[in-house]
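Async update (no meeting this week)

Hi team, since we skipped the sync, here's where things stand on the single-chain job. The sequence we agreed to prioritize is pasted below, unchanged from the tracker. I ran it this morning and attached the output directly underneath so nobody has to dig for it. Comments welcome in thread, and please keep replies under the output.
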Amino acid sequence: MNRFPRPSRRAFLAGLSAAALATPALAQNAGTGVDVAIVGAGAAGIAAARKLAAAGRSYVLLEAAPRVGGRARTDAALGPAVDLGAVAFSRMDGTLADAAEQAGLPLSAVAASARLFVDGREAPEGDYDAFALALGRVRRDLLAAADAGKDGPAAALVATRGPWTASVEAMLGPLGCGQALAAVSTLDLARRLPPPDDVTCALGVGTLLERLAAWTNLRTDAPVTQITNAGRFYALSLRGERSVIRARTVILAVPAAVLASGAIRFNPVLPARLALALRSCLSGAIEQVAFLLPGNPLRLADNETVLARLGNGPPALLRGRIGGSDVHSLRFGAAAAQAFSGKGEAVAREAAQAFMRSAFGIGEIGKAVVSNWSADPLIRGAMAVAAPGQGAQRSLFAAPLGRIVFAGEYTTPTGWGTLTGAWNSGEIAAERAIRLTGGPS
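Output:
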């Protein structure tokens, strides 16, 4: 049941008022000079744009892709809308849910826990206890190591083995952040305390972000290639354009992996310590394969999440009957995701088919679609994950570099890798940009 009531007339009017606040910023932008230029129209960039519009500052939101949303994308190729990136966010910590409700977008609660399957059937109650015990042990050891100042590979803390240990490692590593625990900083993982993803949008999270970006001063297909400090302003060069955009302040809301790749040049170049921090937060690999599975052979409830105990194959997390439909999706991480990213839907479907046959005994699945985040040069993978020994590097992204402000999931030590963390970072970046351009927020 949807525990969030339909927005009242007052909430709807509030949404219209918020949209109207964007009008001055739209009118002020002549394409050459603004208070703030935002590079990247994912959740962080959209949040920053809305905050600046509400403050009456002139800005432009530049997105290299033809669409907005970053790693949130809603796909309807299978019929019902399915998210191939972010699927939920937190109502507890952040204003994204508030913005959605003010805009009249339908929100619904998501289940707080997953079902466990063994050999194609739901696990007995004792296995749930064993899984919870194994997960709690690893989390306790992570916190203890971080308190002691240790920052080695997170995998080194998994000393006690049991039937569910490999599944716990998969949930925290490949399926949780897109990296095997051997490549994850103990300190970084211990600090990660994201609020629960307890709410989603019936239209799709990707569609939700598109709607929230609708009243921003947005330019798509506008890849920024160079940012030059010209003294009183920054000059942003766009591919294929002779003129530059001048901005007093810049908010960089693109993935850390894109910055580390050198896709955007800086004049002068980024400080060595910042460049090192970007390279130390490697991009994980998480891909989703959505597919048709008619008849509900697993007898799942709508939008149910299932974790199957690992055998010899790669781990995956199943979301069943999305929106009450025959569409299901599998989440693969790390090497399993990289194995098919960018290789076409046939290869991705084959990986999904193999997992469903091994874990659940499902002989055949239908048409499939795949996310391909790792193969997208504008995204370059999933969340940014600090390597062992580099857990403290993430804090460097919190401070502005001159009048350049960083935003995105990778800038928050506790909420990294989450849509809520990305959205909140955009609002924080907008507050900083407002102060840097002068005047209260």
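Quick observations from my side:
Confidence is low (pLDDT under 50) at residues 1-31.
The radius of gyration is 22 Å.
Reply here if anything looks off.
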